[in-house]
Design brief:
Blueprint lengths: L3 E10 L3 E9 L5 E9 L2 E6 L5 E9 L4 E5 L2 E3 L6 H13 L1 E2 L2 E8 L10 E7 L2 E2 L11 E6 L3 H6 L6 H13 L8
Parallel strand pairs: 4-10
Antiparallel strand pairs: 1-2, 2-3, 4-7, 5-6, 5-12, 8-11, 9-10
């Protein structure tokens, strides 16, 4: 059953988001107004080392006034390839440059109300090249064993849906057999 968009009006816009009012016709013929938040694409990187550890950042998020561990992530710039954006964000936020970056997961975290697209990548062979250039991103950057991620999710030390999705996929696909408890 497909909803039909009969018209749209931009209610609010910034370089990061837009709020649209849609005039829709639902499958049963009912006409109504629907609200959609348009967001820029997000690139997320799970950098994994040879010791089955993943690079994470301890961050404060102002919208929820909460602290948690996250994978490095950031917005994809206009015209930028999401994979290149992930490599760029990893280096800017952590000072680690990936040797290789490959797709891990694609997700639409709230497709009923937003067009947000999350591109998650796995980076291997990372080399420390500099201090992070992004000074407002995190209080701490650490390599955390994959085996600890499940417990961290249970304790709400990891709450970002992009990080949780990537972490669980890493645990399920780990060649060393590390899986969620």
């Amino acid at each position: 059953m497909r909803w039909k968009v009969r018209g749209r009006r931009l209610a609010f816009a910034t370089p990061w988001l837009g709020v649209w009012f849609l005039d829709v016709e639902q499958p049963d013929g009912t006409a109504s107004e629907y609200h959609v938040v348009q967001l820029r694409d997000l690139a997320v990187v799970a950098a994994v080392d040879d010791s089955d550890r993943v690079l994470m950042m301890w961050r404060h998020r102002i919208a929820t006034d909460s602290w948690a561990w996250e994978f490095p992530m950031g917005l994809v710039e206009d015209g930028e390839d999401p994979q290149a954006a992930g490599a760029r964000e990893l280096e800017e936020e952590t000072g680690w440059r990936p040797g290789s970056v490959r797709p891990l997961l694609y997700a639409e975290p709230a497709s009923g109300i937003t067009n947000a697209r999350h591109f998650l990548f796995r980076a291997d062979g990372c080399v420390r090249v500099a201090a992070p250039t992004e000074q407002n991103e995190s209080d701490q950057i650490s390599w955390i064993p994959l085996a600890e991620l499940h417990g961290m999710i249970n304790r709400r030390e990891i709450v970002s849906s992009a990080t949780i999705s990537g972490a669980l996929l890493l645990l399920l696909s780990s060649p060393t057999g590390v899986t969620p408890a």
